[in-house]
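During the no-cost extension, the postdoctoral fellow (Dr. R.K.) reprocessed legacy sequence entries with the updated structure-token encoder. One reprocessed record is reproduced below for audit purposes.
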Amino acid sequence: MSSLSVVTGGAGSPPVGEFEIACVDVESGEQRFVLADACSVLFEDCLPVRGFPAYKGQRNHVGRWWTATTGGLVGYESWLERDRLMLLDFDPDVVGIAAQPFWLFWTTPEGKRRSHAPDYFARCSDGAALVMDCRPVDRIKPRDAEAFTATGVACEVLGWRYEVAGAVDPVVSANLRWLAGYRHPRHDLPEITAGLLVVFEVPGGLMAGAESVGDPIAVLPVLFHLLWHHRLHADVSIPLSPDTEVVSQGRVF
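Re-encoded structure tokens follow.
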């Protein structure tokens, strides 16, 4: 695995304009440019601009999530970031995801240089962009709030959506963690898939539908895979159970 180049926050030449951005392109390495040029950059393909430190006694959980969206690993630095990354991976409108996608540089009204690396960048199927920071409201300190406000302003200039995301609903999180265990393509078995899509043309119970297709031990992993990929649909805001209503088309939960 190749090592990652990292852009040091706040370092480098003075900014040109109100905001500057730095990223790490896979082919070209470190790039730095004015905000207006960011619209042409595929941040979803960039490397993280800083590392994910891990050390003995660390209180936050650091790891990497294999995304079905990209077929690659994306880093996270807390359970909250993991859950938000999982939600992005589950979103059928998201086609690209990158962690720590860029440094944003700006100067405060007091003349101090600041920098911030958002947690995630997501590209949507229509070309739109989402920039996300993950932080519970009660853990946002004044310095963080300043960084989030500046990032929101920069995103607004670019026409990007910006979100400071808190905790995920625990039921949704639990359901998606379960379904995510079956997100890999190895669980897409064409014969079983075809049977499930036909059975659930009429809404029905999860287990009853699986049993009508074959041995649940073989069928359920495929069913969960199809739910993750939105080829089957169920309401993930309530706990999944054998009686969960599943449908293959037309139903919006």
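Residues 106 and 114 are 5 Å apart (CA to CA). The longest helix spans residues 142-158. The remaining legacy entries will be reprocessed before the final report is submitted.
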